[in-house]
Amino acid sequence: MEIKVLKNILGANEQIAEKNRKLLDKNKVFSLNIMSSPGAGKTSLILQTIKRLKDKIRIGVIEGDISSSLDAELIGKENVPTVQINTGGACHLDANMLNNALENMPLRDIDLLFIENVGNLVCPAEFVLGAHRKVLVSSVPEGHDKPLKYPLMFTEVNVVVLNKIDLLPYINFDIEAFTRAVKGLNEKAEVIQVSCTTGEGLERWLDWLQS
User: Fold this and answer.
1) What pTM value is reported for the model?
2) Which residues of 189-200 are buried (b: 16+ CB within 10 A; e: fewer)?
């Protein structure tokens, strides 16, 4: 009975996710589901992308957090449409939450939509939202073993952005082992090394994004 309930929940979520995708496509909005563990740098990556692209394309952001609006307020300073979702304890966004947020976004005035999921390497991988691509932000301080410990997340994404590479001289992190583990789970996923602090590697991220 528990398995049946779970299937029903996920099935209903997928139906709403499909509605979200159709709504985004109708308004010609390309969307990214940005996922990571807490503190890996999702907001930093979004901010750096906005700073570099906001004069070229129209960007919107949906911020997902358990509570507070700190990240949304930070991004709002860049004068882009921003909607905050507080999950009230849930460890992930789901398609229904996104649907409600989309109703409050000026989709006709947006080309690129960032959906910043709740910081978690487990639950967000299981719930589709209707986004066009899934991005995982990992970071050097987390260690190079994360793909082996959280395989589903790394299997589900289109690209892995390895952030905080400016800390490599100070942390025992094996990039080759990390990349090998990612490719072993998901050979199609590109691994992009960046530092949102120094800007290193961000051009490659922007090239992937604009492609």
Assistant:
1) 0.93
2) bebbbbbbeeee
